[in-house]
């Protein structure tokens, strides 16, 4: 059987690629001041970005759904040691002090058009109701 040749993937210079051949390209933040800037930059520059824990099955479900719809979301896999810093930065980006949600942002966190769209419940509910595709089109993530 022939082996699949990986194609080139562009990644921003502030991120490092992880994963093996056949995996989705992922962006991994590092726990320093560049990571905080990188998180904000990634949210503002990508039509759809999914923040999730490395190896989380619910994050995989959201990624698979978006890929199935034709969206090529940027994936930001968060290591356990960097989780607090990334969550803090995401809360700052959305303008939440953390008190409204017990101080925790739940993964997967999906940002569409630079704004927090929600987690797996919101993504699935809008997909089932038929509202997800128009939202993704409006954000520029889908062209059809």
Major sheet details: 6 strands, mixed
CATH class call: Alpha Beta
The radius of gyration over CA amounts to 15 Å
How far the N terminus sits from the C terminus, by CA atoms, comes to 35 Å
CATH superfamily: Glutaredoxin
TL;DR?
The protein has 144 residues and is of the alpha/beta class. It is 39% helix and 17% strand.
Q: What does this entry look like structurally?
A:
There is one protein chain. The protein is of the alpha/beta class and 144 residues long. It has one domain: Glutaredoxin. The protein has five helices and six strands; from the N terminus they run E-E-H-E-H-E-H-E-E-H-H. It has helices at 33-45, 57-69, 83-94, 120-129, 132-139; strands at residues 16-18, 26-28, 48-53, 74-78, 109-112, 115-118. It has a six-stranded mixed beta sheet, with helices on both faces. Helix 2 (57-69) links the parallel strand 3 (48-53) and strand 4. The longest helix has 13 residues, at 33-45. Residues 5-34 have low confidence and may be disordered. It holds the Pfam family Glutaredoxin.
Record keyword descriptors for this entry:
single chain, Glutaredoxin, six-stranded mixed beta sheet, 5 helices, Thioredoxin-like_sf
Helices and strands in order:
Layout: E1 16-18, E2 26-28, H1 33-45, E3 48-53, H2 57-69, E4 74-78, H3 83-94, E5 109-112, E6 115-118, H4 120-129, H5 132-139
Parallel strand pairs: 2-4, 3-4
Antiparallel strand pairs: 1-2, 3-5, 5-6
Helix pairs in contact: 1-3
């Amino acid at each position: 059987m022939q082996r699949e040749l990986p194609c080139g993937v562009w990644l921003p210079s502030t991120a490092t690629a992880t994963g093996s051949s056949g995996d989705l390209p992922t962006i991994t933040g590092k726990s320093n001041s560049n990571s905080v800037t990188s998180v904000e930059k990634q949210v503002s520059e990508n039509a759809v970005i999914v923040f999730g824990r490395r190896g989380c099955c619910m994050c995989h479900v959201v990624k698979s759904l978006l890929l199935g719809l034709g969206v090529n979301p940027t994936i930001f896999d968060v290591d356990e040691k960097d989780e607090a810093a990334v969550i803090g930065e995401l809360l700052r980006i959305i303008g939440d002090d953390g008190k409204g949600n017990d101080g925790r942002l739940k993964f997967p966190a999906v940002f569409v058009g630079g704004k927090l769209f929600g987690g797996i419940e919101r993504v699935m509910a809008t997909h089932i109701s038929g509202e997800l595709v128009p939202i993704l089109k409006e954000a520029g993530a889908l062209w059809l």
